[in-house]
Design goal:
two-stranded antiparallel sheet, about 280 residues, about 20% strand, about 35% helix
Length: about 280
């Protein structure tokens, strides 16, 4: 076993994205596996993606400053049953992008273009953190591409209505310091783009969630960086949704609770959505 710190930089990694995790020393190096990886030139940049397994397509989307390797605990499980498609999002990992702008809407459209480029008519989708935001927007903007959606640690607004203030207070000094720096290196420009994405976005109206027609599993930790009431707001606003709040859990549900995360999400994908009301609530 070895420690790998993945993601944006410094304190932001540890506190917000929680990508500082123990990653298994697998024979397969997810994110740098040339036998499974390929670049796709879409929407003005080269998007790097890897594919594992066969079966029903499953698209997995990582969080801010992350990469394919963040799902090293999940790819082996799901690739036994699904055709797992996992990419480095624009301006992250191996998907370099020199442009100044970055939005969640851009990234959702990137993933739609990736599926089209791979001739995938529709897929189940897992999104963690910013990947959850991308999953929501993909379902809103390209509903025909998403069969079922499982999101964990997503938010609709960049404010303390969604994120705990104590977390916000940890990130603000980094944002202000980077904002005040008039001359930025190439590396700092990339960090600034991702930090602005985190601090200034997303802006998804509640009314937009009503457009999501696919069954959706909304996940959060009971001690997530996202307020549990905000996670519940997302759940209540999507017509065909389930809610799963993990006890004794922070933001890193796919890693810290990898086994139960994998089996529960797989069960959600495998079974028809069930409407529960009236007398059915007693079951």
């Amino acid at each position: 076993m070895r420690k790998r710190i993945v993601g944006l930089f410094g304190l932001f990694l540890v506190v917000f994205s929680s990508f500082s995790q123990t990653i298994p020393n697998e024979a397969i190096s997810y994110g740098t596996n040339s036998s499974a990886g390929k670049y796709y030139f879409i929407r003005g940049f080269k998007m790097y993606a890897e594919v594992y397994g066969e079966g029903e397509p499953l698209l997995i989307i990582h969080g801010n400053g992350g990469s394919i390797s963040n799902f090293s605990f999940n790819i082996p499980y799901f690739s036994k049953k699904y055709k797992v498609i996992i990419a480095d999002s624009r301006a992250q990992g191996k998907s370099a992008d020199s442009g100044d702008s970055l939005t969640y809407e851009m990234m959702a459209d990137d993933y739609a273009a990736l599926l089209h480029a791979m001739n995938i008519p529709s897929a189940n989708v897992i999104g963690w953190s910013d990947g959850g935001i991308n999953g929501l927007l993909l379902s809103i903007r390209h509903p025909e591409l998403v069969k079922k959606l499982a999101i964990t640690g997503a938010n609709l607004e960049p404010d303390t209505n969604a994120v705990f203030k104590e977390v916000w207070d940890l990130i603000e000094p980094m944002y202000q310091k980077m904002k005040a720096k008039s001359e930025k290196t190439a590396s700092e420009k990339g960090q600034w783009k991702l930090l602005r994405l985190l601090w200034e976005q997303p802006h998804i109206p509640i009314s937009e969630l009503a457009k999501i027609t696919c069954p959706t599993l909304v996940i959060g930790g009971d001690h997530d960086v996202i307020r549990e009431e905000h996670t519940m707001l997302i759940y209540h606003s999507i017509p065909k949704s389930y809610l799963w709040i993990l006890p004794n859990s922070g933001h890193s549900t796919p890693v810290v609770y990898k086994d139960v995360f994998n089996t529960t999400v797989d069960d959600f994908f495998s079974k028809p959505y069930r409407v529960i009301k009236s007398a059915g609530r007693f079951n």
